[in-house]
Amino acid sequence: MPEIRPTINIALVILAFFLGLAQFAAAGDKSEIIGELKIPEEGKSQIIITHGGSKVVGRIVEIKDDEIMFESDIGVSAVLIEDIKEIREIKTGGKYWFPNPNQTRLFFSPTGRMLQKGEGYFSDIYIFFPSFSYALTDNVTMGAGFSIFPGVDIDEQLLFFTPKVGIAASDKFSFAMSGFIVRFPKEYDWDNNESMAVGILFGTGTYGTPDKSLSFGLGFGFVDDELGDKPAVMLGGEYRIARRTALVTENWIFPDADHPLISYGVRLFGEMTAIDLAFLNTFDEDMPVIGIPYIDFVWNF
Questions:
Q1: Are 146 and 132 a contacting pair, CB within 8 Å?
Q2: For the chain, N or C: smaller number of CB within 10 Å?
Q3: Is 237 inside any structural domain?
Q4: What is the mean pLDDT of the chain?
């Protein structure tokens, strides 16, 4: 495990503050669902997704204090409002556009959105960097991963941690504080022969829907207990163009760097998985014209 440095302590204090704020803001989940309940117009149906993962297509025919009466192919049944995770309206006979399974991140950077309690995912970037993330609450997610470089001993592999806390300020705007903390084994630091922690602490705001959104972030890099005095700036977005396809971009301006880092690509997904196929480019003279290929895989659980 990496040594806890003063910078990491500061990060934990900040994360704890936003955790308290997030818990306060999360008090009205049920009232938000109640506000979405309505009897649909003619020619439209609804799909209900429960906290247990069940999906039912039909239409609300009656709304009561604690339950709704939902008409589907199997008849009319009562559904407790507290059991409803999400409700969407669709055209009768139309295809259901399942939720974006990777809406909490772009390529490298997280968005302002959070996983819900009990949700998680496994991701793998470039094959050599697998990681897991899990939502402890609707507002707190913890993640960790490691490198699997061939021929490298396990005690010489990289370890990284990705804590994140956030709140949904409105239906279309979410904000999160997160960190990307990497532990380099002492073999990587020839100056003092000690393990070294590096990374970035940043905040990200996301505006829009899970299918069409923009994200803006500021991040401060650090090495052990030394925090950078100038932030990196991130601007990215996602636009869903089909039921299983979205366009994604993530772009960084680093302090004192001659060129920004630009990325662009497609996200192909199903209900539980997503694959990103993209290119990274700085447009300097040593970079290929189209950029360096990027690939990652995500499986939700």
A1: no
A2: N
A3: yes
A4: 85
List of residues 6+ apart from 8 with CB closer than 8 A: 181, 197
β-strand pairing of 84-91 with 44-50: antiparallel
Contact 264, 236 (CB under 8 A): no
Q: What is the CATH number of the domain that holds 265?
A: 2.40.160.40
Partners of 48 in the beta sheet?
56, 87
Closest among 136, 62, 52 to 86, alpha carbons compared:
52
- Edge-to-edge strand list for the sheet holding 75-80: 75-80, 67-72, 55-63, 44-50, 84-91
Structural domain of residue 117, as residue ranges? 99-300
State the Cα torsion 208-250-20-138 to the nearest 10°: 60
| Residue 157 falls inside a structural domain | yes
Q: CB neighbours (10 Å) of residue 210?
A: 17
- Asked, for residue 2, whether it belongs to a domain, the answer is no
- So what's the pLDDT on residue 27? 44
The pLDDT score that the predictor gives to residue 21 is: 47
CB atoms under 10 Å from CB of 280, counted, come to: 18
Q: Are the CB atoms for 29 and 142 separated by under 8 Å?
A: no
Looking at the predicted structure, is the pLDDT value of residue 2 above 50? no
Q: Is 192 exposed, middle or buried (0-12, 13-18, 19+ CB in 10 A)?
A: exposed
Name which of 27-36, 89-98, 192-201 the model is least confident about.
27-36
